[in-house]
Amino acid sequence: VLKDTLEKRGALGQIKARIRAEVFNALDDQSEPRPPLSHENLLINELIREYLEYNNYKYAASVLTAESGQPEVPLDRQFLAKELNIVEDANGKSVPLLYGILSHFLHGGEGSTQNTLPKASLLYYPKQNLGKPPTERNQK
């Protein structure tokens, strides 16, 4: 009965996630140095962290930060948008940058009310490749 009650309240999933995060932290060997983050990985991790935190995936975000060696303090959103050459409109600022990037590619960059990518594509794949299975895509 207790398990069912916790599931109905959504608390059981949170408890399980918290336990996983604590187990990871306990097992994480702090004496082993993390490999240095490349500029690209730093930006990608930050996009993922912003998405996770926006969706209240707190424990997943904390594990990502610990495991990747990402700085504890998130990068400034304006800095991140500038680094990725993203120009945001007012609507785009209310959601994670990753949503705007996805919207851009799903809508082909046409009339998007979310983020636009004016200078360069974040992906090196031609647009027609995105609908193909990964094994059929051109690898660059």
TrEMBL record:
GO terms for cellular component: centriolar satellite; ciliary basal body; motile cilium. Belongs to the CEP43 family. Residues 34-104 form the FGFR1 oncogene partner (FOP) N-terminal dimerisation domain. It comes from Sagittarius serpentarius. One of its GO terms (biological process) is cilium assembly. Gene3D superfamilies: 1.20.960.40. Keywords: Cell projection, Cilium biogenesis/degradation, Cytoplasm, Cytoskeleton. The keyword Cytoplasm applies. This is Centrosomal protein 20.
